[in-house]
Amino acid sequence: MRVIVIGAGIGGLAAKLTLRRCGIDVEVFEQASELREVGAGIQISPNASRILHRLGLEEPMRRLGVRPQAVVFRRWDDGRELARQPLADAAERDFGAPYYHFHRADLLDILSAAVPRRVLHLDHRRVGLSQHNDRVEVQFHNGASADADVVVGADGIHSTVRNAVMGPESARFSGHVAYRGLVPADRVAHLGVEVAAIAWWGPGHHFVHYYVGAGGRYHNWVAVTPGEWRVESWTAKGEVSDALREFEGWHPQVRAIIGAVETTNRWALYDRELLPRWTVGRVTLMGDAAHPMLPYMAQGAVQSIEDAAVLAKCLERADSQDVSAALLRYEQTRKPRASRCQEGSRRNGIMYHLADGEDQRKRDANLASATTAPLPQNAWLYGHDVEAEFSR
Ligand SMILES: Cc1cc2nc3c(=O)[nH]c(=O)nc-3n(C[C@H](O)[C@H](O)[C@H](O)COP(=O)(O)OP(=O)(O)OC[C@H]3O[C@@H](n4cnc5c(N)ncnc54)[C@H](O)[C@@H]3O)c2cc1C
After folding, report:
1. What is the pLDDT, as a whole number, of residue 116?
2. What is the spatial distance between Cα 210 and Cα 138, in angstroms, rounded to a whole number?
3. Residues of the chain where predicted confidence (pLDDT) is lower than 70
4. For a Cys staple, 12 with which of 7, 175, 290, 306, CB 3.0–4.6 Å?
């Protein structure tokens, strides 16, 4: 079985590892001339960290990741704690694997260091794709071409693989803009921020922050605001003063963390309607190409790692002449769960941003009274092992 993966983001790199582990010959083609992640954080919950640990990555993950003690929700103005879900040892005990916070560059390094460079082709932008009875052929902008039994589009929310096999369709602008910042942790040490994922909810806005980097060297924050600015780019600059203006009247700790950066990046937030299907013939999709979601459950990359695990298990015993049953099983296994995250993330965008009033009071009361699974992200999500059904 030979597989081509288009795109070397977190999803594509994870697929490279899971497919190789299953003895599948895999090559990854990436348009960028070097693998680079932005200076920002990412949360990896136990449902994905268990998969990465099984790939032999536990040592660097424990070394470079931060294990938050809890997820904490706070009110925007007075900081009152609305809910707290313990993580760290509790996550490992209840869900069987750690909850991590990473600097994105560290996570990308961990994933890319694990496989030989000869199967990763940089500076290869996919421009053509043709399906034949027995294979798929891919053309690249530099004149190169390659063929395989299966092609996987891991090329992100604006996937051209998806457009090529399913026709063009636009992403949906959410009306939200994320400002992002990364602060050396000692610059905010005087605030005594606990090692946790802390989310502050307020009218039309929310603010999330946590430590990243080995030993928690940095403090990472994301501030979500309403907006009409529609550029999706990890490198587009935003003004710190604009971010502060959006959080006028918020708790002093929120404003102090925003104010601790010299520069901030801005990112317009998009998702898509659920796709009717992910697979056409020998071509399938994964990660943001298949199920782009708003970041309000911190599951986009996590779900792409689940995709990688299931895809490899489905292809492991497949016949290279007839891959359709295997790709269908992959899609049928993954779609309900990824769709639930897409829809849940949209709902959270409404729930987090309620204006003070009756609905907000109901939300807070529900959170306070739920004792066992108080959060939208709970056991069905973190406790599920997508590889388990394949070992039976
Ligand atoms: C503010 C914010 C916070 C987030 N926080 C979290 C979080 O805490 N936890 C979490 O799990 N997720 C989080 N996410 C979501 C997560 O970042 C994405 O879901 C994830 O990175 C998607 O990975 P991917 O590999 O599918 O796609 P991408 O990372 O988009 O990778 C696609 C790759 O394909 C390449 N490519 C594109 N077109 C071509 C082509 N034609 N030829 C070759 N290569 C091509 C691109 O260069 C890129 O390298 C967050 C997102 C945002 C915006």
Report:
1. 79
2. 41
3. 232-235, 370-377, 392
4. 7
102 Cβ closer than 6 Å to some ligand 1 atom = no
pLDDT value, residue 374:
46
| pTM reported for the whole predicted model | 0.96
Q: Is there a contact between 388 and 306 (Cβ–Cβ < 8 Å)? A: no
Which of 17, 18, 30, 106, when mutated, tests ligand 1's pocket best, judged by the most ligand atoms within 8 Å of its CB?
30
Q: Which secondary structure element, helix H or strand E, spans residue 246, and what is its range?
A: helix 240-246
Measure 312 CA to ligand 1 centroid, in angstroms: 20
Please write the tens of the pLDDT for every residue from 1-31: 999 999 999 999 999 999 999 999 999 999 9
If one residue of 6, 129, 155 were mutated to test the ligand 1 pocket, choosing by the most ligand atoms within 8 A of its CB, it would be: 155
Q: In this structure, which amino acid lies at residue 287?
A: G
- Read off φ and ψ for residue 163, nearest 5 degrees: -60, -40
Listed in sequence order, the residues at least 6 apart from 388 whose beta carbon sits closer than 8 Å to its beta carbon are: none
Could you tell me which of 201, 168, 124, 153 has the C-alpha nearest to residue 12? Answer: 153
What is the 3-class SS of 358-370, one letter each residue?
HHHHHHHHHHHHC
The greatest distance separating any two alpha carbons of the chain, rounded to the nearest whole angstrom, comes to 64
Tokens 């998806």 sit on residue: 162
Which atom of ligand 1 is least distant from the CA of 42? 8
Provide the 8-state DSSP code for 354. P
- Report pLDDT for 169: 82
Residues forming the active site: 210
